[in-house]
Structures are given as C-alpha cells and as structure tokens.
Design brief:
The protein is of the alpha+beta class. The chain has four helices and five strands; from the N terminus they run E-E-E-E-H-H-E-H-H. The protein has a domain of 97 residues: 2-Layer Sandwich (Ribosomal Protein S5, domain 2), CATH 3.30.230.10. The protein has a five-stranded mixed beta sheet. A hairpin with a 2-residue loop joins strand 1 and strand 2. Helix 2 packs parallel to helix 3. The longest helix is centred in the middle third of the chain and has 19 residues.
C-alpha cells in the first residue's frame, strides 16, 4: 500500500495591489499602491532621483501628505509621455485615484483638495494655413 504523504503547501500571501491611471497634459502614469513603508519608485528610480528634490517631488507627495499616509504605502509609478511637470501631475492624479480604491473614505478629502480631477488643459493644436495655434500671418491690405 502506498502511503499518503501530506504535503504542506506554504501559502505566501500576496500583498493587495491597488491600480490606477493618472493623466496630465500628454503624460500618462500607471500607479501600483501596496502596503509598505512609504517607498516611492518612479520608472525604477527613487522619487528624488527621477524628479529631484524640488517642487515636482512635492507635487507627487501632495495626496499622501493630505491624507497622512506617507509611510503606510509603497508606490510604484510607471510614467510615459509629456515633460517632467506633466509627469509629476499625472503621478499625483494616479496616486490619488489609487488611494481612493484602497480606502474609499479618503475620497471626500482628496476631492476637496482637487487631486481627483483631471486637469483638462492641453496644448492647442496648430491650425492649417496659419503659423501656430493662435498666431496669424501679418495682414496686408494691399
């Protein structure tokens, strides 16, 4: 008779990951939020390496500071397109949306601060027959 061997499977509990997408100008940020110690990585680099220690880093941290969750979550951001300012705004928008999926009760506080609203301002397109979006060729009467 074959003896039945009890196999103990070690079940490794995966951390709950909350996904969100943030947008600003032409930049798009894909944000993963998970329980952790407050580490923020942007495109594989730390926040300070990617955005520097100036205003852009503060913009990205704003939603976390508003709801006092700086050390509760680890955040991974993958951001593409646009410039540095647009990418920082997209990351802020994505982090805010991910916080709401993680904790629904934060929605009112983040909404009041304006972090859940996508900034609709975009560069206006150039029109045909003109040198720019609003610029016109000089008018000549004769």
């Amino acid at each position: 008779m074959a003896e039945e061997q009890e196999t103990q499977e070690t079940i490794v509990e995966q951390p709950t990951v909350h996904w969100a997408t943030g947008k600003r100008k032409t930049a798009v940020a894909s944000v993963r939020l998970m329980e952790g110690k407050g580490e923020i990585l942007v495109n594989g680099k730390t926040l300070e390496e990617y955005f520097g220690t100036g205003t852009l880093s503060l913009i990205v941290k704003q939603p976390l500071e508003t709801v006092d969750r700086l050390t509760k979550y680890d955040i991974r951001v993958k951001v593409i397109g646009g410039g540095m300012s647009g990418q920082a705004g997209a990351a802020r928008h994505g982090i805010s949306k991910a916080l709401v999926t993680a904790e629904e009760d934060l929605r009112q506080q983040l909404k009041r601060s304006g972090f859940l609203t996508r900034d609709p301002r975009m560069k206006e397109r150039k029109k045909y027959g003109q040198p720019g979006a609003r610029a016109r060729f000089q008018f000549s009467k004769r």
